[in-house]
């Protein structure tokens, strides 16, 4: 069955390290792609999964928990309103034998900010002024703004992995193969074999001393699929133990009827949206560009995407903060309607003097956000063009190239998806709209920046919610740098007998191999 062949797991290939074979223990399949194993370079779910297994954080989220607890740290606390201090556990080491000390922590955060890679998570550290290591077991973070309600929850995110200062260069990204060879890992697992985006093999790290505990399965193999169809075939035939991202809605419908597998769902807060590059999108003036964004907002049909494309797996999203989070509102529904309104869209364009049809060069990714992305964006193209107000040039690019091109202003309008770093509404706002945000779409506004600072540092819950709601309203009415479309759950499929899947499908969005067993 040549058409069902998985990517090669034997023989030569780029990115190959330390042998081959599928190994024993659990086998996990995915269509996600690893962008980089260097924490400073990766801010995507495909890279977040291996990072979760091999890097330790000062604080982390235990399975099912929404409050961060000590991992490499023994304790962390605010010493002053602008100083957050952590004491490390004694005797921590990386898998290569190098000591993990406060110098390692300081190096990791200094490096993240110094490199400030356009595809990395440095934007999460916008409130960090500097990091100090007064002694081998103490690290102190000095914050720009006092009373930061989110900083402890940022430490377990992709901005917070602790890396080995004796291995990683301070001012540039490190190659994946070199990382694997040097074994600068201190998480529950180490990587023993690495064939990038084909096969990655993990071995339990006996030196790990953290909140996630001893892995329940000693060896895990992660297989990377080019096609969700092949991923579905292998999970239903028992060739792999777990399928995590991304099976199509049709595949999931079929698998729910299969008594040999289990479909697991958990809270996830995934968001799917369109990003507008404010420099390269259509429009001769900022006012015209805003009118185009408003017209697009009034022309999309989220319900049709939810039911027609995703069969209810995703729900319509009318704000960048999904429903269920404190302070979540639906300003895009209030301002532009739940259904397309051609007359309103036409008025936005006419009032700003925008000639129609407006040409949109809309880019999407076919291999990172699931196999239904092609159908989703074909539907969006049809919705926009059916108004007569737009002509849509729809194109797709695979993920690694996609990330590089969008960082180079290659796409005027493009698909993105989001998994929250931590379970707080700010994580759907600050990374998107603060200065140096990860979207790289040239959005920055002083009023939004001031409101973001205010909500982060406001200890009164009622007042903070009011600020969060105002930000959502202003983004939808005055700016629209992104257009929220859909929000959804985390979903994984396992063969019968696999334990622990549901416990890791929680709001932290950390898929932890260490809790899985069979």
UniProtKB/TrEMBL annotation:
Domain Solute-binding protein family: 68-437
Localisation: Cell envelope
Coiled coil regions, renumbered to chain: none
Keywords: Signal, Transport
SUPFAM superfamilies cross-referenced by the UniProt entry: Periplasmic binding protein-like II (SSF53850)
A Pfam family that the UniProt record links to this protein: SBP_bac_5
InterPro entries: Peptide/Ni-bd, SBP_5, SBP_5_dom
Family that this chain belongs to: Belongs to the bacterial solute-binding protein 5 family.
Protein name from the UniProt record: ABC transporter substrate-binding protein
Organism of origin: Nocardia jiangxiensis
